[in-house]
Amino acid sequence: MSAYDTKSQKILGSFDPQDGVWSIPFEYDPEDSNLISTRGLLYIVVDLEASPSVDLHLASKIIIDEIKEKYYGDLDGTPLQALETAVISGKNKLQEIALSNKESVSSLNFNIVSCVVWGRVLYVAQVGETSCLIIRGGEVVDISNKTSGEVMTSSGLLESEDVVLIGTKAFEQNFNNNTLIQNIGNLENLFKNSPQAASLSAVMIRFKKSMVPTKKDFSNLVSNLGGSASKNPTLPAKSEQKETTAPVEKEAVDTSKAINSLGSFNTPPIKQETASEKSLYTNKIEQPDLKRGRKPKKLFKLLGALFLIVALFFGGFKAFPLVKNKFIKTTDISVVDISGYRDRFNTLNKNNAKLEDYKSLQNDLQTELSTDVSNEDLISLIKDVDSKVQKLTETSKIEEQHVFFDFKTKNEGSNINKLTDLEDKILVSDIGASQAYLISKDEKSVEDIAVGDDYLTSTYYDNNYYVLTKNSVFVGSSVDLLKEYSFDEPLSSAKDVEVYFDNIYVLSGSKIYKYALNGDTYIQSVWADLGGDNLNSITIDGDIYVTDTSVINKYYTGEKQDFTLNNMPEDLKEPLFVTTARGDTTLYVLDKNYLYKINKDSGDFSERISIEDVHIVPQSFLLDGSDVYISNGSRLFKIGLK
Q: Where is the sequence biased in composition, kind Basic and acidic residues (predicted)?
């Protein structure tokens, strides 16, 4: 039966700051076995740079104490949630103290990396420029997240013989290279002898799977001892290594004594240790010297052996609360049914869900893992979800570089549903905020076009604004000179809208409605019944092109025309958006991967353009020369074509 051994070593370059720079490693093994089983083991590295008046010893203590207290004091959420909250609290507390003493603290910069090992799960939270490395199978894997001040979290499953290294920016710059494996046993000396000693700190964590005997193992042993072939039964060999609750803080040690080379760890043989030697291996405990008495008769010999085995078995459970409370579990019984979680994951993938939705699933699965650590199906699903979270996190970082404007700053419920080009400005329809905006392309200044609760969408055609509500449309050459015209028949929704020769064409549900002006009223007629539910956008040049799932349909006077896309390099990925203009021979089609150019007459594909490796699922888009504006929720992105 599997359990897990974790050994850690603090590596410190300098005990004191140098020229306003200092870093320090920290590790904490709770004495309370319940805390270990619910929150695991905590490791922190803090990197500080400040004005000479700042006491960096005190600053590091403030951060470390706050993180430790908040993390182990929060027993409601998952370990990942608690770690993120704790690191945010530590960061904020030091910033608040610095601000309240700004007369004497002219500058204070800090970076934090903290991780938790909980069973075989690794949680990491980072602020600023720090490093987090995993050495696995002879390879160094960098899983660091660089941030500009926000807290970034990640998680994953450890494998036996993994080595985790968390450290400062200087550690990464000087040691995350081809010589790391070669120098791993001598890092302490290299740190201390470096001219950047004060900036060098790390915690090295060795993770290893160990074997815990099952009841069946003991039964077999008893059977062997009592069998006729066993003439000289012997006691089981003494275990060379056991888990126990370690002292609150362990001293930094020379890693060369514990680690010979990458992926190869040696545990020293049991011997009579000195006090200093025992500090090197804080998770070993002394064992009594078991001596044989005089040889008993066979029956008493057997009974004595049985009694000793039972005593060792139950005594071991008392000695190892971590093993008892957390890791002892049969490997052939799974208590968590993951079918619902797998369906939830598949649904998220199908609906192009946001990162927050996957993180919520990730937290739920990690909670389940604490009750069923041997469920291989659960572990496999966790790996799939972790991979998705990592991919979306990386995509999110790229997306942040292309955000043109976030309309959530205007309205918390913002949800952009249409973009229209006005040369130097963009007309932005925001169904979530029930209004429209004008945003300049150069200064990003925003002008509100307030409407009301019945607002649906807006567009611009032939120097006039068209702002649609459920019961009317506002039309005018200026946002200050809009005139209201009523609809003879109300609209319930508007997926897209286009204006052509002063007639308004609205994609609503499975139909295109045409509104023609008669006096002060727009008269509704059903221009085309499309018979589909996955319609996203329309564009007009005399014909109307409609996106439907992964195809483009063409209509004229309400009738569907023969129109086929030819020579496409790959299938289009929904959702699709389409645009063109009168006199333009090209149809521009956007899916979530590329922008395609298609000849409108023949349907022949002519060019596919990548959108700078950014795969934002669009809700609307606007083509502007060599750039494309894409909306997704409240955010408007400006992305270059290449």
A: 239-252
Domain ranges within the chain, ordered by starting residue: 2-212+245-272, 339-400
Among candidate residues 621, 625, 631, the one with its CA nearest the CA of residue 576? 621
Tell me if 419 sits within 8 A of 427, measured CB to CB.
yes
What are the backbone dihedrals phi and psi of residue 203, each rounded to the nearest 5 degrees, phi first? Answer: -120, 130
- Assigned token pair, 124: 């990491």
Model confidence at 305, in pLDDT bands (50, 70, 90)?
A: low
620-636 pLDDT, tens digit each: 888 888 888 989 889 89
119, 347, 361, 474 from 341: Cα distances, Å: 21, 10, 8, 48
CB 508 within 8 A of CB 491: yes
* CB crowding 102-132: b at 16 or more within 10 Å, else e: eeebeebebbbbbbbbbbbbbbbbbbbbbbb
The answer to whether residues 258 and 268 touch, using CB atoms and an 8 Å cutoff, is no
- Structurally, what CATH architecture does the domain formed by 2-212+245-272 represent? 4-Layer Sandwich (3.60)
Q: Give backbone dihedrals phi and psi of 110, rounded to 5 degrees, phi first.
A: -150, 155
Q: Which two tokens stand for residue 138?
A: 């002879």
Please report the DSSP string for 561-617 in residue order: E----BS-SS---SS-EEE--TT--EEEEE-SSEEEEEETTT-BEEEEEE-TT----
Among 15-29, 87-101, 387-401, the range with the most confident prediction by mean pLDDT is 15-29
Tell me how far apart the alpha carbons of residues 246 and 285 are, in angstroms, rounded to a whole number.
Answer: 10
